[in-house]
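Forum > Structural Biology > Help requests

Title: Can anyone predict the 3D structure of OmpA family protein?

Hi all, first post here. I have the sequence for OmpA family protein but no way to get a structure on my laptop. I'd be grateful if someone could post the structure tokens.
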Amino acid sequence: MARKVKRARALPWLASVGAVLLGLSGCSLLGGDGGGGGGGEDPGKDGGGGAGSVEPITSRATNVWEMPGGRAEISLHRVDDEHMIARMKVVNEEDTRIHMGSHLAEGFGESEDYPWDYFSGVAWLDPGGRKLHRPYYVDDEGQCLCSPSSGSVLDEGEEWEGYAVLAAPPADVEALTVVTHVALPFVDVPVEDGAPEGLDYTPPSEEPDAEPETVELESVLESDQETVIEDSEATDFNLSTDVLFEVEESELTSEADELLDTTAADIEELGPTQVRIEGHADSSGNDEINDPLSQDRAEAVRDALEERIGGDIEYETEGFGSREPIASNETEDGRERNRRVTISVPKGTPVEDGSKEDGAGGGASPDEDGAADQGEGTPAAEAAVSGPADDDEDAPEVDVALTGLQAVTPNTALLTYELHNPNDDDASVDLYMSSEDWMEFRYHATHAVALESPGGGRAARPLRVDVPDDREDPYCFCSSAAGINLGSTILPPGGTAEYYAMLPITAKAAVTDVTVGTMGTMEGVAITR
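Reply #1:
Sure, ran it for you. Structure tokens for OmpA family protein below:
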């Protein structure tokens, strides 16, 4: 079966993205805390909200909606500079029957590209926070260097054990965050030296056509005045022209000063040598007006930045009129987003290249005594709220309790939380961003969570997984609610389930507000680092 995926090339800014969000010093977003598992007790769950040390999380309860009663354990084994082995064991601990099969396959990808009879659904998060490293694949065969999983059924007390071959991390990386699709992410998993004893596997040296697969992650930070989008090529500051200019004018307003001051400081932190500025309009009006107006507005922003930013920077400007919308022009919200000036800062700047030291670690950063550093806010394990399951006026109330908010890289936080249905009937919880069609995800998932600056400002949405296929819409780096996970957010009476989301944070963030769907916002939650 021919694979449609394209291999993502290695880029020189690997592990450098921490500088980008560090540069966004205007928002005091996010933080992180140790977390629990997918529906059961896990090591470190109770300690996730305390100020003590954060233990590695190498064991998780499996997701209750797909593999109830199971427990997954993960280990990593560096064989040489090129590859390592991820080994996972799943045990059925209860009087149930667990069907493995497709649950072990890659969940961030289409079934025709990732056949559902292999343990392909495992990846490690790059210490820079914006790449996922997946198994070695044999081109055009749709098969990874990994264990088969078809026909795996576990009764009580039985276990399954499998492996996958992945690219090895840099030599100085001693622990990693590991993502699968059967449980919440594993945190600070130690990278052991040497192949697992007794394991019979095919190393990449014996499959010369096999290559490890890498996918890019995109972050979105937004406010009423701007949307900051970061991907593998650039950081784009999309500034609202409703703030910068009067209607059909290209002279900057007095309200633009504060926004431009903040943006200029953000850009200066990145130390670029090139900056591209684009003017964009919505579909109202006509090209004879929009094209020259968007060009003039781009030049006005360029002049303002030149006054505010030092250094030798080459600026390029272009007006696109209404030709490159980022949202639908059929709605007022979409047209408002399309009226923008985009300032694009390419990756690979000197400041970013110098940030590898900050991004080389694993998860939480211990202090001198070995304890994880936690912000001054409410411990995540103490943060809870109750509210309607959706925006319908007759919706039942459900309970939300955070189980963790932990910085797993300097610029990435793992949020884990439980939903509980205290009602006598099923509760279907709406966690879909259906109204945010401008940044629509590929499938249903637990999209509708956000980390927000205390007191207002920028809000962070879940990271977007840009898989290397021929479709543009990304996956959500969060718990799935589609396909084999359909119904994962339908809670039976008295039922509880646990979910996760990976979100962007600033490198120095200590406290954040956390919003989960329509249930409500938990203010001032501490981040564990």
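The helical segments are 18-23, 241-244, 256-270, 287-308, 332-338, 350-353, 356-359. Residues 15 and 337 are 31 Å apart (CA to CA).
Shout if anything looks off.
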